Amino acid sequence: MADSTAINAKAGPRILVVGPSWVGDMVMAQSLFITLKQRHPDATIGVLAPGWSLPILERMPEVDEAIALDVKHGEFGWKTRREVARSLKGRFDHAIVLPRSLKSALVPFLAGIPRRTGFTGEQRYLLLNDRRKLDKAVLNQTVKRFVALGLDAKEAVRGNFALPHPRLSVDSRHQDELRESLGLGERPAIGMMPGAEYGPAKQWPLEHFRELAESLIGRGYSVWVMGGPKDAEAGAVITERLEHAHNLCGKTRLADAVDLLAACEQVVTNDSGLMHVAAAVGTRIQALYGSSSPIYTPPLTDNAEIHYLGLSCSPCFERTCPLGHRNCLRQMAPATVASAIDA
């Protein structure tokens, strides 16, 4: 990743992208960065993003600079935004604002960036001067919406443009160090990601994960359960008193997760941010969909098996099951996923 001095010395277009606030969305945003570099090889790309996402951005060769905007979730953070905007004055000539909130468009406006592109919404008429109407029927995927904002408006509305897959860099030396320091052994690994930040309606039952883990270990695999500190309890349910099962939830950083997921033969995952990380390192994915849609946020890879029952009540896009049963996930049998892993 280049420093700001090198960026300012380059002659091509200087583009600031205001990035999203979720792990999966930040990975999908790489499709936009790749598109921008393909169309403007001499462009420099800066990404304004939450501080936690910088380790992900460092794995994207298209990103020349990552700029931290550390504002707590739900906080307006006027002082912080104003200070960051002051530091960016005169450094970029085009801003692309991916989130659709008013506050996300503030920094480019306050920084005086001449062209500011984003979708119309939340009364951002003054803050954006290249406003795009969002046609959800045409731009029916998150990644399409991101890439569309980097295209000419006339091309974007047609919706038939290329969507390059994200591809995160992997540090093989760090990968080996993690295997040793975490005591992961040499068995081929299946990763499991039982968490989903959005809510429990996206989470396959823990007893299903546990049953699958027992089956896989009996067939010679090790199981690595990955997630953040909030997922540690779920990881304990899956791995408790189970030899060759490792609960790594809360024990690794985001950059570690990139390299560990790349070391897995396959992963079994809810529709989550780590699912998109696994896709971006090329690992085979068994993707479990319940309340969300594999059409709207699919793993961006050709190496995935989608598990989706398509019940009459799904996708509901709710955080918790409105009917209280979560049948869209409970009726998804561990044996079915095990067969897909074998296949």
Structure, explained:
The protein is α/β, with parallel strands linked by helices and 343 residues long. It has two domains: 4-156, Rossmann fold; 172-342, Rossmann fold (3-Layer(aba) Sandwich), CATH 3.40.50.2000. Helices cover 34% and strands 16% of the residues. It has a six-stranded parallel β-sheet with strand order 3-2-1-4-5-6. The protein has a six-stranded parallel β-sheet with strand order 9-8-7-10-11-12, with helices on both faces. The two termini are 39 Å apart. The model has no long low-confidence stretch (mean pLDDT 94).
Which features would summarize this protein structure in a list?
343 residues, alpha/beta, Rossmann fold, 2 domains, six-stranded parallel β-sheet, 12 strands
List the helices and strands and how they pair.
Elements: H1 4-9, E1 14-18, H2 23-28, H3 30-39, E2 44-49, H4 54-57, E3 65-68, H5 78-88, E4 94-97, H6 106-110, E5 115-119, E6 130-132, H7 142-148, H8 153-156, H9 172-181, E7 189-193, H10 206-218, E8 222-225, H11 232-239, E9 245-247, H12 254-263, E10 266-270, H13 273-280, E11 284-289, E12 304-308, H14 327-330, H15 334-342
Helix pairs in contact: 3-7, 9-12, 10-11, 10-15
